[in-house]
Specification:
Order of helices and strands: HHHHHHHHEEHHHHHHHHHHHHH
Low-confidence stretches: 1-7, 9-13
Shape: globular
Helix content: over 70%
Structural class: mainly alpha
Strand order of the largest sheet: 1-2
Oligomer: single chain
Number of helices: 21
Distance between the termini: 47 Å
């Protein structure tokens, strides 16, 4: 019995309780969240029908990122987060900074999801305080995460099935209406809507560039696949399979779904303050269709928040694991059920502040928080690619038989150039400049604090 427990526990004390089905469904569910259900309306408003091309471009680069990250994770399964690889190949200082920036990034991402919840509930309860649904959700999800990783996996399994079936049903329904010549209150359901209102590039090059921020935000969370490796029963097979299936998931659950929205509703009439999926089905006149899909987008936001809390708690634990300070001893230990209890509680308290941001800046809270999250993740992703480049250079003479990034180093440098270009783009565009500057300043502050603390400890 003791031997069996040992084989099912990682070096840090995590239990390997996530099955193949858990990982596959978490991987699928991780690509479907508020960015798609709510944020896509903002992207369409800015870029017009060309948002389809943006999703394909961003999806391509993030698939390459995941190939690189997958190779890192599967090269050493004793390490359970990307941060440990950054520490090994780029140095402890960069790893420490990246760990906390990554943790903050997941917190802002969860805050964006909670903010979106308030918007979704307005569909049914126009006078309900927008902060209330998020606060209640946060309390419930914290309790679930404190029980065990398996309970988290079971919940995500259920949520993922709901999201996947809903997207597929939506696409099939709109496809059927297209074939039989149905219409909505906005006009005919037709492929001509893809070229209406000024053509495919109706908003020009500037609008096309403006669409990238929210599309990138839509894909954030895809690397959750790798973060589950430490608690997966068979990570070597399931992680590789989940990453290789990513292009198919992107086409099925993003590109085709957005084409369905644009076919159902002329893009200039798509709302930016509610879910386009709810708007499209409500417009068909089908009784209760809008309410049904609104329930689904609420479950998607709850699911994403659940995943992001899971990630944030484990990152805070990972950064502080085996540390000597009082802070590290507090957040770098596991509970009796092998979950990072203190790290989860502290992370949830910060995420729960999202409603305060909504109260302060109002309806623009979601856009501001999502922009900040996007900015931070771009920095982290660039660091991750640099880590992979260093890893491959240091292992150049080794016989690499694991999951590999194709066409190294050319694709690595291409991905890195894309992330740098996106950072430059957000600095250039007025609407996203402040969140991007805030992310860069946060990085500099963390670097300064880290350097000061380490120099003090060395003296």
């Amino acid at each position: 019995m003791k031997k069996e427990e040992k084989t099912n526990t990682t070096q840090t004390g995590y239990r390997r309780t996530l099955s193949n089905s858990h990982i596959q469904l978490i991987a699928l569910g991780g690509t479907i969240g508020t960015g798609l259900f709510l944020g896509v309306g903002d992207s369409i408003h800015r870029a017009g029908p060309s948002v389809i091309l943006i999703f394909i471009i961003v999806g391509f680069f993030l698939f390459l990122l995941m190939r690189a990250l997958g190779e890192l994770i599967l090269s050493d399964l004793k390490k359970h987060t990307y941060i440990e690889f950054i520490e090994k190949y780029l140095g402890k200082n960069v790893g420490f900074i990246s760990g906390y920036l990554y943790w903050i990034s997941w917190l802002t991402l969860a805050m964006a999801e909670l903010t979106a919840l308030g918007i979704y509930f307005e569909y049914w309860f126009p006078h309900l305080p927008t902060w209330l649904p998020g606060l209640v959700t946060m309390v419930v999800l914290l309790i679930i995460n404190l029980i065990s990783a398996k309970v988290f996996g079971n919940l995500e399994f259920s949520f993922a099935i709901i999201k996947i079936l809903t997207i597929l049903a939506f696409v099939v329904m709109i496809g059927y209406f297209l074939l039989v010549g149905e219409s909505t209150k906005y006009g005919d359901i037709s492929l001509t809507n893809l070229n209406a209102g000024g053509g495919f590039f109706a908003k020009g090059s500037h609008g096309f560039l403006l669409g990238f921020q929210m599309v990138i935000f839509s894909f954030i969370g895809v690397e959750l696949i790798g973060l589950t490796a430490a608690e997966a029963q068979d990570p070597k097979n399931t992680i590789a399979r989940a990453i290789d299936q990513l292009p198919i998931r992107i086409i099925l659950f993003y590109v085709i779904a957005i084409v369905a929205i644009l076919v159902a509703i002329p893009w200039p009439k798509i709302s930016t303050t509610s879910s386009p999926f709810v708007q499209a089905l409500s417009a068909t006149g089908i009784k209760n269709a809008g309410s049904i899909i609104n329930f689904v987008v609420i479950s998607a936001a709850i699911s994403s928040t659940n995943s992001f809390l899971y990630s944030a708690g484990r990152l805070l634990f990972s950064v502080n694991f085996d540390g000597k300070s009082k802070w590290s001893k507090t957040f770098g230990k596991l509970s009796k059920t092998q979950v990072p209890r203190n790290a989860l509680i502290f992370s949830s308290l910060i995420i729960a502040c999202a409603p305060l941001i909504t109260l302060i800046i109002g309806d623009s809270a979601f856009t501001f928080i999502s922009s900040t999250s996007t900015s931070m993740f771009l920095i982290i992703w660039a660091i991750m690619i640099l880590t992979h480049i260093r890893y491959r250079k240091e292992t150049a003479n080794e016989d690499l038989k694991s999951f590999q990034m194709p066409l190294f180093p050319y694709l690595d440098y291409l991905v890195l150039a894309f992330f740098i270009a996106m950072i430059a783009l957000l600095l250039y565009l007025d609407k996203f400049r402040i969140p991007m500057i805030a992310a860069l300043v946060t990085f500099v502050i963390l670097y300064s604090i880290t350097k000061f603390v380490r120099e003090k400890n060395n003296n």
